[in-house]
# Entry
Amino acid sequence: MSRCFSFTGTKNWCFRSTFTRSGLRSEITDLKDGTVMHCWVPKTRKDSKPDLLLIHGLGANALWQWGDVIQHFVPYFNVYVPDLVFFGDSYTTRPERTESFQAQCLMRVMEAHSVQKFSLVGLSYGGFVGYSMATQFAEAVERVVICCSGICMEEKDLIEGVFAVSDLEEAGRILVPQSPDKLRELVGYTFFRPPPVRLIPSCFLADFIDAMCGEYVEEKRDLIRAVPKDRKLSDIPKLTQVWSSFSICA
# Structure
């Protein structure tokens, strides 16, 4: 079925149209170190507007994460919406898999577009990346909003069973689903009131997996494995003192 018609491909086209109508254009930045970054950037940047970086989470690219809300941001900000490494059209041949590396790549993209100061919103895994950006580049990041991201977790939290999924390998199989059943499980964890995905035919879910989750599977799972490694709560208080405007939404 997906060979004749792809619902995911059609929805992707609609999101692209929304971004274009909102005054954004697709831009590729070669970082010259084996890393290529894709980002939606303003067609015309206005000095009268502040700059805003929107960072997506796992399981989606920039289009799918922000497509339904982008029109609410563009009237007030110069909006930059990147694909993280191994999502969308961004990739690297380098071995790094940490959110720190992701943050450095995003910073280089912003610098490539001559953006010196900006605020950011990070959702889920994007919250980890956004937090890392703010700690590494405090002089550039003005305000931070982190949504649905457990940045205060420690490596031991997984071992002690704080989370519903305590095994990183199982988390990777859910967060980067390769079967309709795993995608249904992911939706169940993701939404406060999950839609009735059990009623959605498996062929539609398989189409989404093929379009959104079929590339860089192990690389994405490596990103998940890297998140809790060596994380310690004792590092958090001294970092949050850097900004006067720091918000965490859960």
Observations:
- Strands lie at 24-30, 35-42, 51-55, 78-82, 91-92, 118-123, 141-147, 246-249.
- The two ends are 38 Å apart (CA to CA).
- The first strand starts at residue 24 and ends at 30.
